[in-house]
Design goal:
The structure holds two protein chains of two kinds. Chain A is built from twelve helices and twelve strands. In chain A, strand 1 and strand 2 form a beta hairpin. Chain A starts with 6 loop residues before the first strand and ends with a helix. The relative contact order of chain A is 0.14. Chain B is mainly alpha-helical. In chain B, 65% of the residues lie in helices and 2% in strands. Chain B contains 15 helices and two strands. In chain B, helix 12 runs antiparallel to helix 14. Chain B is globular. In chain B, 35% of the residues are buried. Classes of the chains: A alpha/beta, B mainly alpha. Chains A and B meet through helix 2, helix 3, helix 4, helix 5 and helix 6 of A and helix 11 and helix 12 of B. Bound molecules: adenosine-5'-diphosphate (ADP) and magnesium ion. Magnesium ion binds next to helix 1 of chain A.
Chain lengths: 328, 385
C-alpha cells in the first residue's frame, strides 16, 4: 500500500500541569495511518496511548493538558490548529472514536436509536425516516439481533458487548475515514473480545475505513494489525509490520512484552515479566526512559536519548545498542 | 470511501419499520403508566381549571361571586353556614345561599376569595419557580461544564458594552449608541480573529485570561446568597411599579441559587463521565451536550427543590402583599388569606386551614408529578413502578 497517508502524527507532545510538576504524558510521538489500513498502538497502561488519541480530536481539556509541540495532519490539515467549530465537523464525520468502557459511554437517558440518530442528523441533513433506515442497517451491520426491537431500547437493557456494538454503530454512522478504537475490548469478556475484533475486521472489509486500534495487549494485535507502534513512557520505541515485530523484535521493551505473553512459555514455567515499573511521567529517567529496566543496558543509555534506528524495510526501533549488535 | 448514498439506499420496507412513536407520545404513555405522577398532573390540571374559572367568576363590574363584598354583620361564619337573609340586602346574599368556605373577619366570602386568589397564587408559584429553575440550570450548567475555562478580557468588555446599550437604550443620544455599538462590533471582530488565527496583534490584550467561568458563577451565587432574599426582593419591588408580574420575576430572580448549585454539583461529576467524552468525540456541540445530554441526568434534585420552591414563592408573595408591596388589597391571594387568617387562628381556624390545604395540595401534586418526571427522564428508574 503506497497511497498518501490519511493521518500523520508528527512529534506530538502533550504535557499535563500537575501538582507534582509537569507530567510529560506524550513526549514526541510520531505515527502514520494510511487509508484503509489497521494500525495498532501498543503499550502498557499509562504510557500515553489514550492521551495521544484524544489530542488528535482536540478532546483533552486544556488546562490541565497542554499541547507542547508537534502536529496532527489529517488529509493535509493540521487538526491542532483548527477552530473548535471546524473540529466539531471533523469529529464523528471524518474521524470517530470508540471508547474503552461500553457500560458508561452511552447516555443512560436516551434510547440507542436516538443516540445514533443524533450523530447522523448532527452532520447530515437527513429526515427522521431516512435516518431510521440507516440506523437499522447500521445495527444490523454491527450484529445487534432484531434491530427493529432494540432501536427503542435504553442502554441499561443491553449487555456490555452489545453496548460496544452500539458504540461502533455510532462511530460508523457517518462513514468516517478513520475510526480510533481506544482499547475497545479491554472491558469485555474474552469471547466477546474476539467477536468485537472480528467485527472491526468485517466492517473494515465492507466499508474500507482505516482503524487506529489502541491496546495494551500484544496478543490482540497479531491477528488484526497491518502495522504496529510500540509505545513506552510517552514515546514510540519500535515500529514495524506485525511480522517484523513478532519475529524480529528489535527493542528490549518489545522483546520483554513478547516474552511475557502467556502463549510463549513452556508448561509449568513461570511467566516472564519485565523487572521494575513504568516510570512516573513527572520524573522520567534521563537518556533512554527504559534504561532502568533494560537487560541490554550500557552506560551511554543513561544520558543519551536514543534515536530511531533503521532495521530495514520501515522497521524502526529506538535502541542503538541492539542496532550496533545486529550490524556487527 | 464516502459512498454513503449508495450504501444507504435501502428502503423502509426491508425492515418493516415499527409504527413511529414520537418522543412526546412516548412521554405520554410513560406518564400514564406512572399512576402517582398522573394523579399529580390531574390534580394540578384541576387547580388550574379552578383558577381560570375563578378568575372569570370573580372579575368584572358585577361578578357572579364578589370576593370583596363586605358584610360586617356576617363576619367569621364557619364553612357551610347559611347567610342571615334578614339582615342582608338581596344583592349581598351569596348566589349559592351558603358560605361554602365560611367568611373572614370582614364578612367576605372565603370561597369567592379563594377562587379569586387561585390564579395569582398558582402563577406566582410557577412563573417564579420556572424562572428560577431556568436561570439556575443555565448558570449551574455553564459553571459545571466549562469549569476551569477562562473568561477573556474581550468577552467581559463585550458583555459590558451590550448591557450598556440595552440599559441605556431610551436615555442615550443616537451618537452615543452608534459609538457603543461600533465598539462592540470591533471587539467582537477582533476576538473572532484572535480565536481563529492565534496571532498576537495590538488586540492580544483582549485575549488575556481574566477568571474562570466557574469562579465567576460560584461567586455570583455566593453574593446572591449573602443577601437575605426577602429584603432583596423588598428593595427591588420598591423600585419597580407594583404589579404581580414584577413580583413573580423578582422572586424568580432571587431564588435560582439553589438550583444552580445542584446542577453545578451534578455537572462536575457528569462532565467526567464517558458518555460526555463520547458525545464530544462524535462531534456533538457543547450546547447540545450541556442541555440535551447532561441536564436530564442532573435534573432530579432540581425538581425536588423546585416543588418546595413553589410553596415558598406562594408564601413570599403573601408576605409581600402583607407589607403592601404585593397584590394590592382588596384583591385576594392564597397567601394573604392565610396571613390575614392567622390572627383568628383559634376563633376561625378555617381561615388558615383552607388556603393552607390548597397550597399543600398544589405542592404535593407538583411533587408527585416532579418525581414521576424524574423517573420518566431516567429510564433506569422506570421499572420500579
Ligand atoms: N487529566 C490528566 N491530568 C494529569 N495527568 C494525566 C491526565 N490524563 C492522563 N494523565 C497522565 O498521562 C499518562 C498517560 O495516560 P493515558 O494516555 O491514559 O495512558 P494509557 O496508555 O493507559 O491510555 C498517565 O501517566 C497519566 O498520569
Ligand atoms: Mg487508556
Amino acid at each position: 500500500m503506497t497511497s498518501d497517508p490519511l493521518l500523520i502524527v508528527n512529534d506530538l507532545k502533550v504535557y499535563f500541569d500537575t501538582e507534582q510538576g509537569v507530567s510529560k504524558a506524550v513526549d514526541g510521538v510520531s505515527y502514520m495511518v494510511r487509508p484503509g489500513e489497521t494500525v495498532c498502538l501498543v503499550g502498557e497502561s499509562g504510557c500515553g496511548k489514550t492521551v495521544s488519541a484524544l489530542s488528535i480530536l482536540g478532546l483533552l481539556p486544556q488546562p490541565p493538558a497542554q499541547i507542547a509541540g508537534g502536529e496532527v495532519l489529517f488529509k493535509g490539515r493540521n487538526l491542532l490548529e483548527l477552530a473548535e467549530e471546524d473540529l466539531q465537523s471533523v469529529r464523528g464525520r471524518e474521524i470517530s472514536m470508540v471508547f474503552q468502557e461500553p457500560m458508561t459511554s452511552l447516555n443512560p437517558v436516551f434510547t440507542i436509536g436516538y443516540q445514533i440518530e443524533e450523530v447522523i442528523t448532527n452532520h447530515e441533513g437527513v429526515s427522521h425516516k431516512e435516518a431510521e433506515i440507516r440506523i437499522l442497517k447500521l445495527l444490523q451491520d454491527v450484529g445487534i439481533p432484531s434491530p427493529k426491537e432494540r432501536i427503542h431500547d435504553y442502554p441499561h437493557s443491553l449487555s456490555g458487548g452489545q453496548r460496544q456494538r452500539v458504540m461502533i454503530a455510532m462511530a460508523l454512522a457517518c462513514s468516517p475515514d478513520l475510526v480510533i478504537a481506544d482499547e475497545p475490548t479491554t472491558a469485555l469478556d474474552v469471547t466477546i473480545q474476539a467477536q468485537i475484533l472480528n467485527l472491526f475486521r468485517e466492517l473494515q472489509e465492507k466499508r474500507g475505513m482505516a482503524i487506529l486500534q489502541i491496546t495494551h495487549d500484544l496478543s490482540v494485535v497479531a491477528g488484526i494489525a497491518d502495522r504496529i507502534y510500540v509505545m513506552y513512557a510517552g514515546i514510540v520505541v519500535e515500529e514495524g509490520s506485525v511480522w517484523q515485530i513478532f519475529r524480529d523484535p528489535s527493542h528490549p521493551y518489545t522483546m520483554g512484552l513478547l516474552e511475557s505473553l502467556p502463549g510463549r512459555r513452556e508448561k509449568g514455567q513461570e511467566l516472564a515479566t519485565i523487572p521494575g515499573t513504568v516510570p512516573d511521567p513527572t520524573m522520567k529517567p534521563s537518556g533512554c526512559p527504559f534504561h532502568p529496566r533494560c537487560s541490554y543496558f550500557q552506560e551511554s543509555c543513561r544520558d543519551q536519548f536514543p534515536p530511531m534506528c533503521n532495521f530495514g524495510d520501515d522497521h524502526l526501533a529506538r535502541c542503538p545498542v541492539i542496532h550496533a549488535e545486529r550490524i556487527a | 470511501m464516502k459512498d454513503s448514498a449508495s450504501e444507504h439506499t435501502l428502503s423502509g420496507e426491508t425492515f418493516g419499520l415499527p409504527p413511529q412513536q414520537t418522543r412526546l407520545e412516548e412521554f405520554w404513555s410513560q406518564l400514564r403508566k406512572n399512576r402517582l405522577a398522573f394523579a399529580g398532573l390531574v390534580i394540578f390540571g384541576f387547580f388550574f381549571l379552578v383558577a381560570v374559572v375563578g378568575m372569570l367568576l370573580t372579575t368584572g363590574t358585577s361578578p357572579v361571586l364578589d370576593p370583596s363584598l363586605v358584610r360586617l354583620q356576617e363576619k367569621l361564619r364557619p364553612p357551610l353556614s347559611g347567610p342571615n337573609l334578614e339582615s342582608l340586602l338581596p344583592e349581598e346574599v351569596p348566589p349559592l345561599r351558603v358560605y361554602l368556605l365560611g367568611t373572614d373577619e370582614l364578612g367576605r366570602d372565603v370561597f369567592a376569595r379563594m377562587l379569586q386568589g387561585a390564579w395569582v397564587s398558582l402563577t406566582v408559584g410557577f412563573v417564579a419557580v420556572g424562572l428560577a429553575v431556568i436561570i439556575g440550570v443555565f448558570l449551574g450548567g455553564l459553571s459545571g461544564y466549562y469549569g476551569q475555562n477562562s473568561i477573556r478580557v474581550g468577552q467581559v468588555i463585550l458583555v459590558l458594552l451590550a448591557l450598556w446599550v440595552v440599559l441605556g437604550w431610551s436615555g442615550m443620544s443616537g451618537v452615543y449608541l452608534v459609538v457603543l455599538a461600533a465598539a462592540a462590533v470591533v471587539v467582537l471582530a477582533s476576538m473572532v480573529l484572535l480565536h481563529r488565527g492565534k496571532s498576537h496583534g495590538p488586540f492580544a490584550v483582549l485575549d488575556a485570561q481574566l477568571i474562570s467561568v466557574d469562579a465567576l458563577i460560584t461567586s455570583l451565587i455566593d453574593i446572591m446568597l449573602c443577601f437575605p432574599s426577602f429584603f432583596l426582593i423588598l428593595t427591588v419591588v420598591a423600585l419597580l411599579p407594583a404589579s404581580i408580574y414584577n413580583i413573580m420575576i423578582v422572586i424568580g430572580l432571587t431564588s435560582w441559587m439553589g438550583a444552580a448549585r445542584f446542577v453545578r454539583a451534578e455537572f462536575l461529576s457528569l462532565r467526567e463521565q464517558d458518555f460526555v467524552t463520547a458525545a464530544r468525540a462524535l462531534g456533538i456541540s457543547d450546547w447540545r451536550i450541556i442541555f440535551r445530554h447532561m441536564v436530564p441526568n442532573a435534573i432530579a434534585p432540581v425538581l425536588v427543590s423546585a416543588t418546595i420552591g413553589i410553596a415558598g414563592a406562594i408564601l413570599t408573595e403573601a408576605g409581600l402583599s402583607f407589607l403592601g408591596f404585593g397584590v394590592p388589597p382588596p384583591h385576594a391571594t392564597w397567601g394573604n388569606i392565610l396571613s390575614d387568617g392567622k390572627n383568628y387562628l383559634f376563633d376561625a381556624p378555617w381561615l388558615t386551614i383552607i388556603p393552607g390545604l390548597a397550597i399543600l395540595v398544589v405542592v404535593l401534586s407538583f411533587n408527585l408529578f416532579g418525581e414521576g418526571l424524574r423517573d420518566i427522564l431516567n429510564p433506569k428508574l422506570r421499572e420500579r413502578h
